[in-house]
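Check out one such.
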Amino acid sequence: MADFNVDRWTDITFGTVAGSRVRSREDILILRPFPLWLFQRGAPEGPELLLKTLRGEKIDWVNYREARAPSAPCQQCKVVKPFDYFADAQGDKARANLPATCLTCIHKDGGACKRKLPSNVERLRCIGCGFEKVEHSFPRAQLRQPRAEERRNCIACLKNVSELSCSQCAEVKPLKEFHLSALTLPWAAACQSCQDAVRGKARRLRAGWEKCRGCAAFLPTSSAVYINQRCPNCAADRKRGERTCLRCKRQWSENSAEEQIRKRFCPNCRQGRSWRAILNEGGKKQMRDWVLPCWRAAQQFECDIPSIARLFDLLAHQLQNAWGRVGPALCFRDVAKARRAR
């Protein structure tokens, strides 16, 4: 008896394994009706590998492991490690086929040697090997190219290429004649000879070329899409106004005026945060940049002045109240309103 209906009590693996054991339709009883579309999406990865192992078929375990946890060599210790052993910036370098340093070599004094990668990563199919791999297995340039779903290749498939065609001189040359990141964008690859021809020229004389501020490579502007003077590999995914909290690492969007201080903590962490800790972290800054709470602003009264120290009444007891939390501290405009009301 098999249950093919998937809910919170029944997993799809049970029905898949039970159905694989059936040799005749008279040998099985179906417990209840089930939606057909659940079994028209292809076999899940786990049961498919299990059935292949039971049938004795040959499985490419190297590509399966690479699809789940891509790896890259460290330029210092020369050890091939998964991406969670690299910092975020170093992992982006490894995705762009650039030399990267692992956390163990960076934190030689005993710091963290591993980080946690996001679990909700999208899985994409590689056109070269046909495997569905996590997003970190693909260079950013491959995901940002036109019609990426028909052209994208993982970094492992791109490294199997031994020659590239220059988009400027149209000559086929070995990889050593190109920049390291040219492997990830072959449609815009320019050999070192063509790059050296425009490298020494002034910016106004190298029309049609753009220098990446990240990897310092020259690429033709007609072939590559530049974002903030950065190539598709070095351009960040962060949108304007999007920020990352220093405490919980959560991303949030908040548009602030130019004259306001850039907030480094999300609203949730700001509410439960000690003002003394904020003052201690900003000790190296000038006093006008220190964040101080206005009592009426905290109580949601009429005060709508930004809570920074230069707007506070520079009386000793007001600063003492703000630092030592002895009592409420009022900004000087709120104090002036109270004096005029008298």
